[in-house]
Amino acid sequence: MNKILGESPQITHLLRTIPMIAVSDVSVLIYGETGTGKELLAQVLHLESRRSDKPIVTINCAALPLESVEADLFGCCDDEGKLQRRGRLLAADGGTVFLDEVDALPKEIQAKVLRFIEAGECQLQGSHKLHLADVRILAVTSVDLQAEVTAGHFRADLFYRLQVVPITMPPLRERSEDIGLLLRHFGHNFAGNNAVVRYSKQAEHCLYTYAWPGNIRELANFCQRMALLNPGKILQPEDLPIEMMPESAANKHLFTLPPTGIKLAQVELDLIEQALEMAAGNRSRAARLLGISRDTLLYRMQKYSLEP
């Protein structure tokens, strides 16, 4: 079953708003980096809508054939005006159209797509008759579509018609409190009949602080690889891909003591303040960034008279 997983504030808020958005027929424009789960969100919106018993038709705008894009989207008629081919937009009648990479929609077809979204009608090649279809539009982009409008690459009127409800899927690095939940979920999914892979506290710290540029897709692929290569093993930092280890992990010492020495208490206080700032005050997340328990963090905050 398709399900968005997470306990971070961003995902909790999203899960609360999904039912309200799903029951409406308004167009939704989903933003987000690659691998953040934009397509999953579109599927959830469709499954929770009144159109869930109808198809969701996916159109990858970046892969549309330039020489026949209009026929591919809308269809065409023969010389007598009889429908010869039903395009994918018309074929979605009653259901949902998922426009993937909508920023790549050829500009020469954008006006016709706009008309279809606004009125649910289009005129097919070879016919003077208007063809109608009732569809709901969910569009996805990984780029700043407003910037594309400013640059003249995307029609402003189509942009505003798509963005009735904008939603941004947060990157995984901004919701690191969800990493543990996702590791367990994918770990069990990919274990099959084998024992589930586990992680030492040091390995968990590496995974919590890693930037995950490929987001949830990268994390899922990582879990699948670990389940295949290390069934039932408790992984240590040295078992992780090199890019997931701290930059200085190859060195004998994580920190180099300067010849002039340091004030250890001041370094500890500075690191705690940095962790709290990075975690936006979330003490559980700050503790994970420091590789200590929440209780230990609270004790040290009290030690340095930091506001609890």
Number of helices: 13
Q: How far apart lie the N and C ends?
A: 41 Å
- Domain count: the total is 3
**The first-level CATH class name of the largest domain:** Alpha Beta
Give the strand tally: 11
Walk me through the structure.
There is one protein chain. The chain is of the alpha/beta class. It has three domains: 9-170, 3-Layer(aba) Sandwich (Rossmann fold), CATH 3.40.50; 176-254, Helicase, Ruva Protein, domain 3; 257-308, Homeodomain-like (Arc Repressor Mutant, subunit A). Helices cover 42% and strands 13% of the residues. The protein contains 13 helices and eleven strands. The strands form four sheets. Strands 2-5-8-1-9 form a five-stranded parallel β-sheet. Strands 3-4 form a two-stranded antiparallel ribbon. The model is unreliable at 248-252 (pLDDT under 50).
